[in-house]
Amino acid sequence: MAPFLALVAVTLTCRLLGALGVGYVQTWPDALAVGLAAMFLLTASAHFLQPRRDGLIAIVPARLPQPGLIITATGILEILGAVGLLIPSTAAPGIRTAAAVCLAALMIAMFPANVRAATGQRHPAAPHTPLVPRTLLQIVFIASAVFVAVAA
């Protein structure tokens, strides 16, 4: 739930700042890009900080080798994607779009781990969101990334 709250709070704060004249976030897509970046920086932190890291390692599907390396790699990808979202389309055309598309694809690729966390064996530090709410949140996150990609 914390990632969703970060997405909503940062997006709305940015949109308010945009309404007050801050040019960087004067549109909904720009504000949402910053909100997504904040959300991904928050989720990326769990890939590196204990005890959440161990919880994430525990939900990597068993058929995948080196779960620790996978968690590190996906955390780095989340950070890189967040940075890409913060680059305005006017500064580097295509970067924000590419970042949003790649993050949407990453969320789809990581969804089996979320299913495992919701339905499988529990690790005390693993995410504990039940499957239906987790799926709905994932849809919101992916739709937000697609919206930013299309609007960029």
From TrEMBL:
Its topology with respect to the membrane? Multi-pass membrane protein
Transmembrane stretches, start-end: 31-49, 69-87, 93-111, 131-151
Record-level GO cellular component terms: membrane
- Quick check: keyword rRNA processing in the entry? no
Keyword Transmembrane among UniProt keywords: yes
Where does this one sit in the cell? Membrane
Q: What is this protein called?
A: Membrane protein
Organism of origin is Microbacterium natoriense
The organism that produces this protein has a lineage beginning with: Bacteria, Bacillati, Actinomycetota, Actinomycetes, Micrococcales
